[in-house]
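QA checklist item 7 of 12: single-chain prediction sanity check.
[x] sequence parsed
[x] length recorded as 488
[x] structure emitted
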Amino acid sequence: MKRMGAVVAALVFMIFSVTAWSFNFLNGSQKWSGASTRIYTGLGGTAPGGITWSVALRQAAQEWNEKTDFTFDISGEYRDPCAGTATGSRPDFLNGVGFGTTVCGEAFNSTTIAVTVSYRRSNILGSLEFEEADIVFNSNLNFDVYDGPLRINSNNAPVYDFRRVALHEFGHVIGLDHDDRQAAIMNSRIGSLSRLQQDDIAGVNALYAGINNCSLSGTGFGWQFGGLQSGDCRIQQLMSGGTDTSFVDIYTLDVANDLTVKVDVQTDGRLNAVLILATEKLGNFKVDEGSAGNCVPSLQSNLPAGKYVILVNTYTNTPPCNLASTGNYRLSVSYTSAGLLTLGGRQSFKGGISEATYRGGVTVNGGLTYGNRVGPNQPFDVRGRINIDPRHQGQPGFLAVAVITHTGEILVKNQLGEFVAYQPEQQLIPVTQRKILTAVEDIEIFKQFVASSIGISSISVDFLIGYGLDSNPDELYYHQQPINLLVE
């Protein structure tokens, strides 16, 4: 990323005008943050053929939604597309659509069907993003809503298909330029096409490919080890353009519950790291360069359930603190929750199916809150809960607990409550407790344990819980997402 102080968040007023679809579009890769924007489609009036202009607009926007990776949040309200365009005024940041005899006070030229007016700004990652895009249709021309070839009325004047023009203009709102290499709605001249073509769809999906442009690593809570180095993905690739050529590692994070998430990074002393947290589609950026002091970044955010990405980034220009833009790091991801964390990804040893659900977490206050990070001298409990598949309730069975260290070592909890090395050649299915399975099984993994009591000051370990049936002793049902414990 660029130094935050060097980024200018200036508003730039741009006009993309259509002629018989022949109009200029700004070069570059400007796009909407998060691959989505709200469009106001409540335009009054009805086409001669009986379809309201508002319905035609919604149909056009919905076609982009259904066929591409971009999403229009379609509102049925009306917003004036010319609001905020007067000299000295500021945009209203609302994407309106309307008819006009002029383009917000400026005359249409003789071949202009519609005009898209946009505002954009530079973002923290060196690329341009839209802030507002409005469409003005030329009310001096004739419009209807229809499919097929261009129509001519009784006065030998063209009648333009409003929905087709809207589909094309929405392409510019999204960020597409003209493309005459293949048949497409985004061709520079209006034709007989009235639906999106593969070239249109591919263009949007390429522009908003985002994290799919780079190699991804999944992460849960706990530690991840990595490094920024030559050959890594660059922000310019991630954003499908822009000026930021700094290296970036990308970690995907699935959040099943509403959580407070904290992300920290420790480096090898050479790398000047930057942390970025965003939605999966690169919206709602949160950036930190050094709030933990000494140029060490730390981020904390309240996240609703959803899919997110954590970016470990550096600088394009000279980093602060006389450090480098390459080097190794350890990423720490922790959370706080009001209850046990939902653990996703049902698994089984032999491919059997269970509708059980799993939850777990670490608590330092008797269950008032849960998380995964504790201090080395802090007493804590590790708890798990299994909602047993109704088909298995009331049957003789067993519970199992395993722990996986950050080095890959596997320990299992035996029936004496001891953690011992997993030896599958002696016992494939580790048994912690045998019992008649009830509807809800609460499992106490650790109780009032203190890491420093066994000489541990820093560690990340993952716990898995599961169950099985005595009638099928070689099958174990468990979860993929672990219960993480982070001692730091």
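[x] summary fact logged: Confidence is low (pLDDT under 50) at residues 1-26.
[ ] second reviewer sign-off
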